[in-house]
Amino acid sequence: MIKETGRVVAIEADCLWVETIRQSTCNSCSAQKGCGHGMLNKVAPGRLNHMRVLLRDQPASNFAIDDEVEVSIPEQVLVTGAMLVYLLPLITLLLGTLLASQLWQGDLAAFLGAVGGFIVGLGVVKYHAAINHNNMDLQPVVLPKRDNGGIASVNWVEPA
């Protein structure tokens, strides 16, 4: 489970909009050179990101603007999502190229098939995102607020 802390910037009935600051954890990651996140962080370090986070079983009334919340997403969802977003359009691009090359002769046909296949792949990714918009298993969720364990805060006053 990947966890991130953020600040609530908007509240909706079924979700929160949370602002996070991109952390520079790239030095400990094994994909340092091939990751777009690391390159973006070098261009604009500390840039704020906004994400829609589902509430799960918590009512929106438990939260207020500027509350600090903890957000989680399973690692497998992140890996699967990255493969879907990056590989599916590439695979459909190649399939479009092959199909167009089989049906028509010439480079223009192969190019148009590649463009068409890429557009189909992007459409499938967009459709998948739309149907899973509120899927708790595939979206970031807010973790329950932690209480202070029954410890009351104490305000110290100097004796007069």
Total separate domains: 1
Content-based structural category: alpha+beta
Assembly annotation: single chain
For the sheet with most strands, the description reads: 5 strands, antiparallel
Strand order in the sheet with the most strands: 3-2-1-4-5
Stretches where pLDDT is under 50 for at least 5 consecutive residues are: none
Distance between the termini: 51 Å
Mind telling me the C-alpha Rg? 22 Å
Q: Would you summarize the structure shown here?
A:
By secondary structure, this protein is an alpha+beta fold. It has helices spanning 36-43, 75-103, 107-131; strands at 2-11, 15-21, 48-54, 68-73, 141-142. Helix 2 (75-103) packs antiparallel against helix 3 (107-131).
Descriptive report:
The chain contains three helices and five strands; from the N terminus they run ββαββααβ. By secondary structure, the protein is α+β, with helices and mostly antiparallel strands. It has one domain (2-142). The protein has a five-stranded antiparallel sheet. α2 runs antiparallel to α3. The radius of gyration is 22 Å and the shape is elongated. The model has no long low-confidence stretch (mean pLDDT 81).
What topology emerges from the helices and strands here?
Layout: E1 2-11, E2 15-21, H1 36-43, E3 48-54, E4 68-73, H2 75-103, H3 107-131, E5 141-142
Annotation keywords:
160 residues, elongated, 5-stranded antiparallel sheet, 39% helix, 5 strands, alpha+beta
